[in-house]
Amino acid sequence: MEQGITIKKYKEYTAKKFLFIFLLIFLIIVFSIVALNIGSSGVNLLDFVKLLIGKGDDRLSLIVWQIRIPRVIGAILAGVGLGVAGCISQSVLRNPMASPFTLGISQGAALGVTLSVVLFRQTLPYLTSLFAFLGAMMTTLLIILISSRFKVTPEAMILTGVSLSSLFSALTTIIQYFADELKIATVVFWTFGDIGRVSLREIRIIFVVVVLGIFYFLLKRWDYNALESGSETAKSLGVNVERERIVSMLVTSLISAVITAGVGVIGFVGLISPHIVRRFVGNDYRFLISASALFGGLLLLLADTLARTIISPIVLPVGAITSLLGAPFFLYLLSVRFRR
């Protein structure tokens, strides 16, 4: 009898989490349709349906297939990648304020992008992604070294990220000083964080890296659950904590790097998403990884749609919108931790 009650409660426990994940998928589909049908060009739902059945004119076809659809897909993929990267960073570093942006990983990737743009005559997506990954990996290795050697507190780790961000920003500025005007404009525009410039080729790169990264994280979901109980407990359960921490951070660095190379620096999506979905799915990484990824995609899609429409026809950089949303949330997290 007790076993039957336990099984029933467990099914209810998992059903609520699956329901939340399916709700996120549904909301992404709904707001994707909304995003495709609003904007300054006057394409409405009827025009979109005509395009799907092959009866739309060439101008509307160009707007939808070459501009809006890549933008929507790019926003979802970038948000998914940043959301899952923030989730895993917070797990392996045992730091609730960790994310690619707050740790300086995105800024390290931006430094790599700057070097790629300035050193070479033309922007090559694969080369840019490689330089971005090298910059992100350099930051990650520094973070892992500091966290493992000096046993710093979560707050000190964030301060380390702030210091690294300032360092990389300074190096980026120095490199820009010696570049020509065209390359300076390219780099500055990149640092804004803008989904509108992402191409189908860059979307393919982001898609492959993000999907493979999520697949790896899901394979290791039980290891992350063990890490929630502490490093010693995880070791007693057979988890190679040091190796898992390094490999997981390298994968998150790769995800952050290709996203930064494709759409620029976008802050706080990786910080906000895991904290919000924990309210609904808890700390069970069987569900938290997927939920954080989906909520990140939904959040960035909504932010990009807002950036396109808030003062239409002017399109704001989505990085500014996410920073406006994320900065107060970050201050809230800091205040909660200091009160504790």
Give the helix proportion (percent range): over 70%
From the N-terminal CA to the C-terminal CA, the straight-line distance is: 42 Å
Report mean pLDDT, rounded to a whole number. 83
Note poorly predicted spans. none
CATH superfamily: ABC transporter involved in vitamin B12 uptake, BtuC
Structurally, the number of domains stands at 1
Shape: globular
Which features would summarize this protein structure in a list?
transport, mainly alpha, globular, ABC_transptr_permease_BtuC, 340 residues, ABC transporter involved in vitamin B12 uptake, BtuC, Iron ABC transporter permease
Structure description:
GO terms for molecular function: transmembrane transporter activity. InterPro entries: ABC_BtuC-like (IPR037294), ABC_transptr_permease_BtuC (IPR000522). Belongs to the binding-protein-dependent transport system permease family. FecCD subfamily. It comes from Dictyoglomus thermophilum. It is found in: Cell membrane. There is one protein chain. The protein has 340 residues and is mainly alpha-helical. It has one domain (1-339): ABC transporter involved in vitamin B12 uptake, BtuC (Orthogonal Bundle), CATH 1.10.3470. It has 14 helices and no strands. The protein has helices at residues 2-37, 45-52, 58-92, 105-119, 125-150, 154-177, 181-192, 200-219, 221-227, 231-236, 241-263, 269-281, 285-309, 318-339. The longest helix has 36 residues, at 2-37. It is globular.
